[in-house]
Amino acid sequence: MSTPIRVTIWNEFRHEKKNEAVKKLYPAGMHATLAEALKKRPGLEIRLASLDDAEHGLTEQVVSGTDVLIWWGHVAHSEVKDEIVTRVQKRVLEGMGLIVLHSGHFSKIFKRMLGTNCSLKWREAAEKERLWNLEPGHPITQGIGDYFELPNEEMYGERFDIPTPDKLIFVSWFEGGEVFRSGCCWERGHGRIFYFRPGHETYPTFHNENVQKVIGNAVFWAAPRIIQADSCPNYQPLEKIAPKDAQFGKAGVLQESKL
Ligand code: ZN
After folding, report:
1. Closest C-alpha to 68, from 141, 138, 10
2. Per-residue model confidence (pLDDT) at position 68
3. What is the pLDDT of residue 120?
4. pLDDT of the residue at 206
5. CA of 54 to the centre of ligand 1 (A)
6. Per-domain residue ranges of the chain
7. How far is CA 76 from the centre of its chain?
8. In terms of CB atoms within 10 Å, which of 115, 130, 169, 245 comes out highest?
9. How far is CA 209 from each of CA 148, 202, 206, rounded to the nearest angstrom?
10. What is the CATH number of domain 5-222?
11. How far is the CA of 135 from the centre of ligand 1 (A)?
12. Rounded CA gap, 140 and 220, in Å?
């Protein structure tokens, strides 16, 4: 038996408490619905976390015990404490996978990892979305055909202000005419990041079989290949270097620290 991938599903978990329509679709929260779907895939150990938990449910112990973090947020991005964002960022750079869903495009952690505005066009008109599969050989698109459709979704349109993805695997077309880069992969440090567009809270998107399949595939793709803490060591040469100290000075960073 190989070790299970430890997945933490983080949800802001505010809409489900306040909005009746959302509560009806996701009585225990979108994260709980996703967890039910992911439990069908063998090899995953799933934990839930949300904004109102102590330290947003992302204590040092939880973060260091997470292989892949899934993130959904919308109305309360600003309430996420910067020190927690820094903790998550550090872990991604060490090798943890990060999957950001839908309105998580404006989360602090996504903007921190990518360094751009992450803005886009949007419209709530329950319109059809068609997601085209650009990379049928990619691990995240396994089991997905040429495309799949969601009958009702919020529109996100270009320009999406992100760094050009290392790999673009889905492009969405919307009934109103816009297109959007809806499945994007990046690497930051040793960590893999996947952004997946669908998931507006007032539509049953997370009950959709294809959406669940993509997120499940993404968990396996984003799982760490290595976890390596950052360091910046002064390094000894492998071969003997002829002495040049008398000829060139040194910046003295190490010398000063020894004073
Ligand atoms: Zn939305």
Report:
1. 10
2. 99
3. 98
4. 98
5. 26
6. 5-222
7. 17
8. 169
9. 10, 17, 8
10. 3.40.50.880
11. 25
12. 8
Residue 104 CA to ligand 1 centre (angstroms): 9
Q: How confident is the model at residue 252 (pLDDT cuts 50, 70, 90)?
A: low
Residue 181, both tokens = 């880069």
Q: How far is the CA of 40 from the centre of ligand 1 (A)?
A: 26
Each residue's pLDDT tens digit, 145-197 = 999 999 999 999 999 999 999 999 999 999 999 999 999 999 999 999 999 99
The 10s digit of each residue's pLDDT in 96-155 is: 999 999 999 999 999 999 999 999 999 999 999 999 999 999 999 999 999 999 999 999
Has residue 60 got a pLDDT over 70?
Answer: yes
Residue for token pair 């299970």: 4
Q: Are 222 and 95 in contact (CB under 8 A)?
A: no
pTM score: 0.95
- Residue corresponding to tokens 């492009």: 171
Contact 200, 102 (CB under 8 A): yes
Alpha carbon of 168 to ligand 1 centroid (Å) = 21
Other CB atoms closer than 10 Å to residue 185's CB: what's the count?
20
| Local structure of 142: helix, strand or coil | coil
152 CA to centre of ligand 1 in angstroms: 12
